[in-house]
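Supplementary Text 2. Reproducibility record for the structural model of the 460-residue chain.

All settings were left at their defaults, and a single model was retained for analysis rather than an ensemble. We include the record here because the model underlies the residue-level annotations in Supplementary Table 4.
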Amino acid sequence: MTPAAMSDTGRAPGVSFGQALKFWLKLGFISFGGPAGQIAIMHRELVEQKRWISERRFLHALNYCMLLPGPEAQQLATYIGWLMHRTWGGIVAGGLFVMPSLFILIGLSWVYAAFGHVSWVAGLFYGMKPAVSAIVAQAVWRIGGRTLKHPRRVPLLWAIAILSFVAIAVAHVPFPFVVLAAALAGAWGGKVLPAQFGGSAAHAPATGADRAPGASFVTDDDTPTPDHARFRRSQLAGVLGVGVLLWLLPIAALVAAHGWSGTLTQMGWFFTKAALLTFGGAYAVLPYVYQGAVEQFQWLSASQMIDGLALGETTPGPLIMVVAFVGFVGGWTKQVLGPDLLFTGAALAAALVTWFTFLPSFLFILAGGPLIEATHGNLKFTAPLTGVTAAVVGVIASLAVFFLVHIALVPGGTAGGWRVDFAALGLAAAAAVALLRYQAGVIPVIAGCALAGLALTLAA
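Retained model, structure tokens:
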């Protein structure tokens, strides 16, 4: 299909709403691997296979999402859905990215709260964690290769990526400062060395060398911005007004039913604040969630919080969905609807926590998307975002190292120390070979590792 302008209805030619709906539903069930893995899945499906959006338009949207607080992979899905099929397209894409994870976590949280530790579930999780680490490593390889190209061509982008890795992994610099420094470096580089920042994978005009033979996309590099994605002050005011109402009405209902100090009300307020602090993904905000949920409100214990993180790491959807586990266990522990409605109260708490956590993400995309669409050909705006993209490669690499260390070192060494888990490392290596060498699908790799982990656990 040759590049074509999108219709005035806002629907991308060649992609019906039904086709998109099926994909977004599928994505909600296969979006394993944290943000890096989820972005890699979307890139493979939307850019490489379905060709619904070009590489540069995809990365331009990703750059914007990386600057926002909140789960960038879910926001990216919302952005692409909105670009193709207006507001409802964005709501469906972002909503289906979260809903399967919410229902799965409610079910697993109920098993956890009602029956405690289950050995076969732990075995499955033991195998899935190495697969997750391999998926993140694959994302570093793919996104890094496309963004950074050869070191001789874009040495400054490589320097930004390496310095970002060191800043996050070694110096523990807060992610917002890394993003800000990368954006400033990109703005400076766009002025003094525009070839490096204007010719990056994210924003440069397509050339025959960069694109596959015969490549074309439904939304291509030169596809005009659809009418619904053009900035209008009235549209911005309308989106913000609806967003305020969607936050205020539930909070008002909770205050009326439970008072301001009620558990559900406090959860709504607390996770609204958390949603606005999640720069850099879930790991950046987990200390804040831990401090509030465990130490301040005592909705759950420290060990329960760690178990919830394991569930969040090994279920589809954004890792920040661990807040659904926090909400469920907190609702169960505090008996928010009374002792006779433990499950109902806990499920309600999980749903409310999810609502208040993700509502800002939809508003950021639906309100800010038109402004970002107007900049995808302007170096003045795209050079800082290119710098951010390079930094994100380093950040994802630090996450891959974190996962590998997390699965490789386990308690149990001499004198209460640590030991190396060679079985987990072997599973991670096998998963990496399957993904990188044989281009295996994410679901088969995760399923195979889960079964291997179950076998190893039962045999121990």
